[in-house]
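Researcher: I'd like a candidate sequence for this fold, 936 residues long. If you have to choose between options at a position, lean toward the conservative one.
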């Protein structure tokens, strides 16, 4: 075994010991308030934990750990067999907790010093031995039955379970390596057999089966022998494998292990050919119904956290690309529908061509003289020559037009159009089929991605209990020391948090509990005098909200007196008395986290040094977490910790407001409403909404955000001026808030990506996400939005007065582009957008006039002349003849450069005349002058 393998085993041993030690501590604390059956079960669990530590320590050579665990195991045996658990004394629990602490210290020392006995280890070993002596003296010594040799004892249920379920896998590996060994890979086979030996010998040591260990030791003697050949390896190896199988069978049957010695194989002996499965096959042992087997422990592996982080990030990218695929699938279906609509139009056009030709042919036949086919039909045949059908013209002369069809190129063209339309229709049908298959594949990919995401996210998360299970012990010790009765309530112990946050949380939680115990919870007599129960309570709650982990540490104590903080600030010289009077409550609470700041007068073992809350904030900053205080004098104090999830995939409600798409975490949306303006109430200058028997604030989303992006589209309407106002009722730890948005887009699964350092978190923004089309969208931090004041909310539109909401100073002029050419419209819009103008497009004069009549506010119109339905001259005449639009500047942009067209445009009231191809620089230079002219 190389150093890397050994280090991996030691790491696994350390992690398992931590779990076993924490399990013993948790069970000891739970026994104080538990019933008899629960106490008995807890003792059995602690015995198994100590036994596991003993065996694992022995296997890895940590003899001090094994000895200490063995002594503690004997203490649990006394507790199980010689005490009345229904009358368990608190001192017994305290003594055993001290033993668990000593074992923990021995484990850490052994790992750090490679089991070299240090003075501290000796002291802790003596402490555990003294605990055992105390138990012996208090509960008396009982005659211990002589322990039979391992090869004479009946296998216990646990022993049977191990040899039935775990040992066969080791035997199978041994036999596989022997059967696949070759001269070329002999070294590799020896290495693999060496690993099998270490596992079997470790198992023998852990289960205290020395005879079984001797059988396994034959593997080591074999692979360590000099000049080992493949023939000898396989010959003696199969014999050892047979002996191991026999020993396993004897252990399962409760018989002594009796294995003959293996004689070395002479060099000339042929290698026996043995089957892969050993013979005879051991009979299957079925457990007795009266003694059910314990549940087998599922095998686990330990993976480097960085690898899991990479895997989680890749899953996030997979979700983003899946969303992109869904967007493309939706666009494909839309295009297929559009193609089908165009095919219908094309079929109608082809049919009209056929009908027109038939009508023309019949009309000409009736208007001609006799069968000569003269008149207009002859002219048509001249324009569309007859198509030869393979027969000579003289034969055709004997037939009338009704007796023989005549075809022209016009008829052939119509037929080709129809055939082409049918071919396109067939292709569209295939496209539709492919789109349906694409959609089914996308749905299947969505399901697989969701399952993968769910499984992967579980790999790097642990229960919140891992961060708080040590707190009941600490609180118990403080209650005994300071004569207070305080209960600890843990809510959300199963809430999943990222394992990398555990270390950053442990110290802050300890300091907050100590702070609540010392500063918050009053003495029992004081609580009774104020009408409170004598027993105080500290509650720790963990939950997820909006891509964050929210941890609340609350107590029902005396609360925080802001005036006392104010006096301390002045006393310490941190501010003058006048300055201190101007501090808000939140600013006063912020001083609690300053290093060296304390509200207590003296220094005690618990507080007074001004260190605790400073450590809380410092540790949380390392993981980009925040902490805030909420306190009510005489009622209690709450510390609210917010931790960003390193990567979360959650559902969000996409909304649009002020040209921006915004993602609102769906778990923060309490309700979605569509209200009328008449349902809004005014309290002073604050709009309010009556919701569930109470008034809550109503604000516009854009008033809560500190940024704005000018978009190229039409100006966003004020939400409060719409006939129906979309409103989100947001819930957070800060309260409730109603937010009006411009438009609801829909629900979408998003990947929450926190802003990376050194970027600081903007107020109101939790992080970002990437949509399927590649756009980056901000995710709202609902808690920030709910608690921040709104200073620029406009209520003019809902106060019953007809007032226009003043446009933002940063709002750019809007230009109406009218052209029947889609390419020209797009090109011109791109030019204007780059110049920071907002653009609205119209495909002809009628479309432009309708937009203006519907209330479009534009600063300039750029109009083409030649367009269907209504040309530029007619549009210009309509604009100038309508009083509402008469002052809008109009610039003509056309390919007609003649003086006649220019003169006509000027006479109708055009302000400028440009010809295509236009000069972009000249156009952009003239636009500000035209807009300024309209303002004047």
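Model: Candidate sequence:
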């Amino acid at each position: 075994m190389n150093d890397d393998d050994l280090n991996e085993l030691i790491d696994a041993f350390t992690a398992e010991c931590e779990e076993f030690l924490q399990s013993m501590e948790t069970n000891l604390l739970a026994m104080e308030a538990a019933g008899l059956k629960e106490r008995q079960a807890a003792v059995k669990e602690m015995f198994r934990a100590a036994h596991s530590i003993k065996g694992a320590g022995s296997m890895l050579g940590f003899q001090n750990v094994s000895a200490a665990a063995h002594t503690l195991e004997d203490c649990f045996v006394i507790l199980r067999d010689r005490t009345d658990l229904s009358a368990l004394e608190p001192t017994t629990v305290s003594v055993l907790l001290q033993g668990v602490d000593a074992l923990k210290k021995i484990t850490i020392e052994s790992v750090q010093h490679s089991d070299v006995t240090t003075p501290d280890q000796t002291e802790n070993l003596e402490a555990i031995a003294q605990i055992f002596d105390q138990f012996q003296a208090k509960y008396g010594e009982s005659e211990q039955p002589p322990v039979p040799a391992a090869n004479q004892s009946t296998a216990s249920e646990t022993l049977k379970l191990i040899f039935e379920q775990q040992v066969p896998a080791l035997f199978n590996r041994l036999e596989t390596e022997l059967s696949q060994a070759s001269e070329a890979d002999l070294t590799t086979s020896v290495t693999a057999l060496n690993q099998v030996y270490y596992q079997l010998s470790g198992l023998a040591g852990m289960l205290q089966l020395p005879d079984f260990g001797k059988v396994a030791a034959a593997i080591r003697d074999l692979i360590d022998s000099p000049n080992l050949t493949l023939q000898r390896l396989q010959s003696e190896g199969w014999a050892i494998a047979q002996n191991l199988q026999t020993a396993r069978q004897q252990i399962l049957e409760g018989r002594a292990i009796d294995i003959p010695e293996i004689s070395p194989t002479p060099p000339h002996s042929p290698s026996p050919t043995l089957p892969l499965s050993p013979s005879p096959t051991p009979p299957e042992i079925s457990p007795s119904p009266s003694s059910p087997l314990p549940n087998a422990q599922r095998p686990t592996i330990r993976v480097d956290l960085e690898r899991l982080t990479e895997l989680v990030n890749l899953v996030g990218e997979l979700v983003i690309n899946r969303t992109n695929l869904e967007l493309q699938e939706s666009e494909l279906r839309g295009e297929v529908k559009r193609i089908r609509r165009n095919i219908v139009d094309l079929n109608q056009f082809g049919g009209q061509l056929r009908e027109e030709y038939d009508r023309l042919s019949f009309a000409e036949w009736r208007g001609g003289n006799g069968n000569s086919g003269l008149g207009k039909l002859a002219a048509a045949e001249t324009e569309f020559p007859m198509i030869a059908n393979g027969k000579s013209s003289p034969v055709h002369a004997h037939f009338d037009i009704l007796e023989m069809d005549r075809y022209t190129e016009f008829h052939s063209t119509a037929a080709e159009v129809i055939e082409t339309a049918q071919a396109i229709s067939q292709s569209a049908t295939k496209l539709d089929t492919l789109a349906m298959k694409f959609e089914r594949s996308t749905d299947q990919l969505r399901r697989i991605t969701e399952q993968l995401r769910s499984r992967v996210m579980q790999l790097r998360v642990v229960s919140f209990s891992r961060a708080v299970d040590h707190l009941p012990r600490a609180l118990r010790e403080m209650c005994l020391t300071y004569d207070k009765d305080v209960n600890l309530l843990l809510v959300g112990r199963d809430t999943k948090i990222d394992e990398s946050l555990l270390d950053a949380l442990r110290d802050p939680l300890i300091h907050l509990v100590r702070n609540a115990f010392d500063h918050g919870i009053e003495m029992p007599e004081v609580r009774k005098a104020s009408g409170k129960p004598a027993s105080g309570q500290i509650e720790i709650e963990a939950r997820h909200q909006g891509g964050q982990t929210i941890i609340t540490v609350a107590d029902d104590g005396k609360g925080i007196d802001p005036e006392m903080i104010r006096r301390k600030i002045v006393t310490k010289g941190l501010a003058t008395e006048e300055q201190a009077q101007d501090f808000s409550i939140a600013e006063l609470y912020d001083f609690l986290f300053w290093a060296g700041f304390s509200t207590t007068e003296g220094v005690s073992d618990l507080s007074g040094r001004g260190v605790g809350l400073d450590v809380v904030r410092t540790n949380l900053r390392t993981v980009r977490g925040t902490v805030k205080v909420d306190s009510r004098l005489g009622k209690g104090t709450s510390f609210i910790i917010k931790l960003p999830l390193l990567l979360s995939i959650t559902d969000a409600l996409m909304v649009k407001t002020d040209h921006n798409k915004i993602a609102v975490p769906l778990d923060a949306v309490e309700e979605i409403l569509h209200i009328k303006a008449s349902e809004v109430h005014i309290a002073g200058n604050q709009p309010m909404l009556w919701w569930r028997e109470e008034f809550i604030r109503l604000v516009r989303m854009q008033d809560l955000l500190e940024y704005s992006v000018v978009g190229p589209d039409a100006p966003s309407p004020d939400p409060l001026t719409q006939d129906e106002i979309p409103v989100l009722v947001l819930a957070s730890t800060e309260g409730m808030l109603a937010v009006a948005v411009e438009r609801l887009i829909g629900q979408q699964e998003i990947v929450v990506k926190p802003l990376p350092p050194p970027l600081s978190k903007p107020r109101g923004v939790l992080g970002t996400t990437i949509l399927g089309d590649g756009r980056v969208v901000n995710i709202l931090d609902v808690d920030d939005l709910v608690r921040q004041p709104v200073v620029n909310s406009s209520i003019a539109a809902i106060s019953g007065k007809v007032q226009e909401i003043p446009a933002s100073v940063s709002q750019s002029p809007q230009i109406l582009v009218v052209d029947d050419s889609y390419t020209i419209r797009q090109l011109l819009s791109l030019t204007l957008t780059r110049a920071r103008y907002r653009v609205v497009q119209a495909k002809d004069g009628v479309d432009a006039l309708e937009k203006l009549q519907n209330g479009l506010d534009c600063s300039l119109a750029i109009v083409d002349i030649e367009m269907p339905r209504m040309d530029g001259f007619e549009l210009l005449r309509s604009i100038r003849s309508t009083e509402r639009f008469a002052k809008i500047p109009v610039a003509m942009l056309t390919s007609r450069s003649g003086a006649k067209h220019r003169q006509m445009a000027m006479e109708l009231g055009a302000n400028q005349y440009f010809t295509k191809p236009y000069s972009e620089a000249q156009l952009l230079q003239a636009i500000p002058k035209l807009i300024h002219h309209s303002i004047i």
